[in-house]
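As described in the Methods, two query proteins were run sequentially through the folding procedure within a single session, without resetting any intermediate state between them. The first query and its resulting structure tokens are shown here.
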Amino acid sequence: MNKHISGSELETPKVTTGPLPASRKVYARPDAAPDLRVPVREIMLDASSGEPPLPVYDTTGPYTDPDVTIDVEKGLSRRRIDWVKERGGVEEYDGREIKAEDNGNVSASTRRAPSRSPTARCAGSTAIR
């Protein structure tokens, strides 16, 4: 049985942010697209190896960037929105209001699998079928 939680009982989730040990986050800029920043993690090797830091692709997103302030109440910034629009094939639209059933808050008697059309397309896509 689901317990009703009031707004005063809600707590903002905690997320891990900040730098990771023995490494640093840097950004590579491809010659073909200098406006892009590709995240790279430079892993520091033991000094006795005589090797430079090992660069690996960084999948941690903005959470480990020391120059980014993370606020889960506001969400992440839309850094790529202009790039996505420039590529085409998408359109902006106003989403609908969230309903209780979107979060699984429906009685068992009214619960059913959503119907899906085999010709349905992704919301916001303007791609030709």
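Immediately afterward, the second query was submitted; its sequence and tokens are:
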Amino acid sequence: MKKVVRVAITGAAGQIGYSLLFRLASGETFGKDVKVHLNLLELPVALKGAEGIAMELEDCAFDTLAGIDCYSDANKAFEGINWALMVGAKPRGPGMERSDLIRENGPIFIEQGKALNRAASDVRIVVVGNPCNTNCLIALHNAADVPAHHFTAMTALDENRAKAVLAHKAGVSVGDVEHMIIWGNHSNTMYPDFENATIAKAPVTSKITDREWLQKDFLKKVQQRGAEVISARGKSSAASAGSACIDHVKRLNTAGTVFSCAIMSDGHAYDVPKGIIFSFPVRSKGNGAYEIEQGVQLSTFAKEKIKASIQELQQEREVIKNLLP
């Protein structure tokens, strides 16, 4: 009998949910020897849409799909799950400040954190809905019985974007770009670490010698890619975000893989203060476990960029301090 992994997806009827659900069900994410049971969580007004997607999933006849249930109650959706992919979040509207977005999403992640605490005994959480670092912090604080290291926020999309930008500039395959680390917040202060990345096993700086481009244009391109996508298609990134979520889960389950992942800082690594969800290079231990990759050398330039992201995350924590039990 095949092992069954139970996965809950919030905001399942949204564009990102639609992009990732079929790849979860197909066996790509957890392997062909594992069956997946999907719990689709949606707002009551969107529940019919989730039920329609469930029909499509059934119609694909994936032999790795163990079952599908649709819910509007987080307590029921999270019952007995192994993974929670927290995709659903209120999007940023016209004229909305980042602090306003944080406050408006706060109640969602309070409720879902409490539901995780009540319903799931051993769960790994991936927060995708933005602002993902601080939403993750809110959920974590409201799920006191779930170990803090079981919570992660996704910076895989930023890592993937950075690799693609460097590959395009160097005229190589994206597979030639390795060791790309995203430090900090999933925001315009994130730092894509080109100094420690490689192209065809050689330092990026030996393949792309225009240092000014790397320090300015490259960083700006990665940091503002989401806005560029919105400007071009009139909607935010969906398929690429869903694909990055799949990458995130696969990397967490593949022992030895080093990748970018936002986690709770314990104050001991790279001078990042305790108590914020910060993107580090982490090494997977497999089965959702990880450890921070130590020994990465940081230049003065890198440290200044990282410091700016730390300050932003501390400011965001101050905004939602009343939401943290």
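The chain is about 40% helix and 20% strand. We note this only descriptively and draw no conclusion about the first query from it.
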